[in-house]
Amino acid sequence: MLRRRFVNLVAQNSDGVYSLRRIEAAKHLFYPSIKEAEESANDEKKKYKTLRRLPDPITSFDPSPVGVLFPGLEWFELLAPRSGEGRIVNSNKAGHTAMFDADKSLYLALPNLSQAKGTSPVSFSVTHPGSGQDSLYVLHRYPGQAVAQARFVPDRSEHPRSCFEVLEYKGLSNDGNVPNKGWDWRLLPPPPFVREPGYQPSMINSHTTIKDANGCTTICISSDKIGTHCFDTWCFDSTHHLRWKHLDVWKQVGEWELPFYGRAEHVPELGILLGFTAGRKPHHLCAVDLSTMDMDGQAPTWQHVWDNATLPGEKNWYPLFFRLINMGDNRFCVAKLFGDVEMGKQFAVLTGIEMERGQDGLRMVQHKRTRYVFNRIDVKWVL
């Protein structure tokens, strides 16, 4: 994955209108090299800065129309990695979706979601072979509740009531002859546990994607008292005219949970899953070596935990949002949104880090840290 130039911020003003702003990674988050980052490690003026105002918006998004029937807040997600760093998909409460290409300043209207996805759904970008476009898989964070409330969608899917669907670009039809181009949503089977007798509604606590040596991607989710389930997206198939096919198959891999808070990033170059520690705050940065992870065996545990990426004052703050942004070339942006009860304010902290594996094992190098205190403009998503 090539190095990204920007971190995308979706902010909301007092009128409820959303805007997209972009933070320059080289200016605010990273030094040119690890050596320069280490040389500046003891200079807090260089390492920690406050952003007085956000960059000017490059576009705006209207809020959901008043009186819509569908539950849930708007959501935004980056379509990556093959699509670049500027293709952003968003949905309003009515299920209307659109894509904005920040690099080309182009809008594209998309088909409506088949089912509402609720507040802050979990999403996964997946690359399929033979296509120049990535696919975006979106799953309701409370899958059992979503299936129970889902509308019946006849004649569109084998799964007319589901909490899971994918946005994909369709090229030729299955016979390879009739053009059928365009973006569309396709309903997928829900996690199998939502239909089991005695199932109690649960939340997806942690999730990730893992790409194997052949490039095939597996989606993994964990829920409290449910365990971990994986969804195989596709595989190569020499008998298919495309030489590959969708699998769309769920399987339970253990009664254990992934040891992460929220999303974890697969870093194949380093053979790790990188994320935040599960459990109580402050949710330190941590890593699990995939070589020690048996998907059919015992629960995975952290081999590496770094607390120096945690701010001293975090113990007095309450977290609103944590996310790890893969910036490419083993660089990441640690994005954290906090509230401070004493100050009565909210703020975002963005920290640039770089991972490397040497003779002494895996290590984390911190680059720059930028803080922005909300002032009539609230950061809602970091992509």
Automatic annotation (TrEMBL):
Protein name listed in UniProt: DUF1618 domain-containing protein
Superkingdom, taxonomy of origin: Eukaryota
A Pfam family assignment: DUF1668
